[in-house]
From TrEMBL:
<feature type="signal peptide">
    <location>
        <begin position="1"/>
        <end position="21"/>
    </location>
</feature>
<protein>
    <recommendedName>
        <fullName>Spondin domain-containing protein</fullName>
    </recommendedName>
</protein>
<keyword id="KW-0732">Signal</keyword>
Amino acid sequence: MKTRATLTCMLFVALAGCLDGYGTGTGAPTATSPDPQSLRGDALPTGAVSFFKKLACPEGWKPYEPAVGRTIVAASETLPSGEVVGEPLSSQEEREHSHALGASVEIPAVSYVGAPGGGNSGVGQAGAVSFATTSEPASADTPYVQLLACKKHEESVPRPTPLPSRMLMFFDLEKCPEGWKPAEGTAGRLLVGLPKDAPADQTFGGDPFTSPELRSHGHAFSSAVETPSHGIGLAGGCCGGGYAMQGTYEFASMTEPSEVDIPMLVLLQCEKE
């Protein structure tokens, strides 16, 4: 039996080698690559920043404090990564703002036969009527959802299935990692989910953010002043003049600009090649 086993080994050694206690025929274990599916971690590069719909960051990620209470906007040449805009929101805070406003309306004059004064009290004076006030504070009704912001701090783990091309990701890095390039068309703009049947990559709204200054806006408004009638024991004519004419007088103006504080963090945004 021993001779037969030795002969069998000699016949097959040129093809495969003989098995030993390790199943290798060499007396030592063979180094094999680990199954990628058994590795812990993910394929995203170190420095990636993303939001998660969970209470704790996944393995290899940690909470990203600079994004607490802020939305993230893509950096540009004039709005560098790391800049912050406004004050961070507290939990479920609706940031309010108000406007200063004022206007003037011209009330025409009417004259009466007789001398002004005497018993003709209670009548209004013609001329410009002005006012100035401040609106009540109100929410801008900016729609938000609170999510956990995390940053990848461990190295990427290669996976059999590559990350999809044209995927967008924020990075807390000076430049895009290998295999990624700066995103086009998103610099200085807030990202909005694509509505149904809508074209992608369409910009709208105001100009992109180019500085960390808050964006201000104003409102047009209009109203009217009504001067009621008032009994006077005089006929219309000369020479009691300067009284306000009965009527309704419309006016329109613009509020003073006011800032809507949308707290933002500016970060480098990259696109997967």
